[in-house]
Amino acid sequence: MKETPLSNCERDFLLRAIEEKKRLDGRQTYDYRKLKITFGTDYGCCFVDLGQTRVMAQVSCELVAPKENRPTEGILFFNIELSPMASPSFEQGRQSELSVKLNRQLERCLRNSKCIDTESLCVVSGEKVWQVRVDVHTLNNDGNLMDAASVAAITALCHFRRPDVAIQGEEVTVFSPEERDPIPLSVYHMPISVSFAFFQQGTFLLVDPCEREERVMDGLLMIAMNKHREICSIQSSGGIMLLKDQVMRCSKIASVKVSEITELISQALLNDKAARKAGGKCGFAESMPQDRITALKMDQTDVEMTNVSQTGSGVILQGDEAPPPTVPSPVVPVPGVGQVGQGLQSWGLEEEEEDDDDEEEESSGDDQVEEVTQIKLSEKDKKEAVVEISDSEEEEVEVDKLN
Amino acid sequence: NHKVSASNNVSLREFGCEQNLLSRPDGSASFVQGDTSVMAGVYGPAEVKVSKEIYDRATLEVLLQPKVGPAGVREQSQEQCVRETCEAALLLSLHPRSSLTLILQVLHDDGSLLSCCLNAACMALMDAGLSMSCLFCGVTCAIGADGDIIADPTAAQEKESRALMTFAIDSTERRVMMSSTKGSFSVQELQECVAVSQKASEKVFQFYRDSVRRRYSKNL
After folding, report:
1. Where does this protein have coiled-coil stretches (chain B) (predicted)?
2. Does B110 touch chain A (CB under 8 A)?
3. Could you report the per-residue pLDDT of A42-54, keeping only the tens digit for each?
């Protein structure tokens, strides 16, 4: 589907507003939108809402053989899925430029920064290691997918629990979650990405651009940092030329934002841990907001089954009233020729009816004599004729049947 | 011949639904059945590629995204089931040479996934304001090892079942619009499951009605 093009007056309005330090939704230049983090039923499932931008991350793991050049390290695999649900311009399966860019940035942010201890993912050196897979699905694109995706990915990794493994000599036992409690991954630090959008050749900058602002921006600067003020990755795109002090200013803003976001993530993880410990149900039905008129919940209900077997039998009886359709059995008129049914009848020829006994469907040339059983003719017809199915409708071929 | 006991009451799990939760799609809904949760988004009627256009009606495309990994053949067959149901219900001839895209995202699968997808799809199509000749809902029935019929089974119940059936039921005459079955069962069991699904669908349609009534009501 094609994205609705941005009209010139809309573009001019946005740029003029930015020049006057005004944003469409009333935020200040350095303000983030409201960030909400919720978790799903199983470990490793995390939803992030950044304003209207919504993403979901799911972490899963499986045992695989390690890479040859790194036999003692586990494998991390990241995948950001730009779902067509998020935006009409995202197409299923097509590896668009944005998709490549986001995937690469997420990899650099999380893998190259070594935030996860991959050595602890090794089970049997050189043979079996854990491959941790992070799938980020974009649900709604209202700008700044990168930040939302990085928050979702790192939160899901912190939330995830992998199955416990016991090694006794040569034997490796993987315990299911019911047998032994799964253990969390060892996360050293939490890199979070902060995006800055630049306008008018780098004169104006905005933090956390929304979708409209992204469409009119000149360039984007993404800084991935952790709360210890270590920069994990910097990426500048769009070809804008930034001065050194602009980049320094951005990194200072980023460190403030990152510490706020990290605090939020830790709080959300603690809340979830407490809720699970208390034994309450943590799922989607609970996290659904009940005070909205667009949401409704209904408790478990029973369905009456009193008349079910009568209704079922009734339907079958009704079906039985009609005579079962006779499927003509295969007939072998000539060795090597099998025939089912009568085929097309020529005009004027009376319809012949035949009742056949059950016959074998396969018959080779040699066996067919034994396999062709006696054929009973209906009493009505004295003439017996077998009409061969042929391409031409007019042609009428009569072949003597073998008994 | 299996005698299915009709004395036990089957129960449907907790339902939850939220409409219009995404800002970009024209219609969106999230449907929750117990722990199974599916989010649906609808775009349309919109421009269609010339290669896919149909001269007298809309082209409906259904995409089902699993939670982990790329979409495979199983998702494609589920997409087919949902698409056939939607095409039967939607008035496609009102939008010739247009495209309708329905995207389903699996948020969590704890059994009865296909019926949850159907329910989410119907609510999203309603939210998008697309005209339909009838509403539809999905109900899954499982036949346990001892012959009991379980409606809306969880993943654990599905695993132990001998047969699993999903029916799409229409709202006007409670007929079966689509059926997708797995496993072996007798004709009697099939008809009983259809009857159970028809009874269960009444609860689901009542839930639809309550959701929409709540949405358009003047007070909460």
Report:
1. none
2. yes
3. 899 999 999 999 9
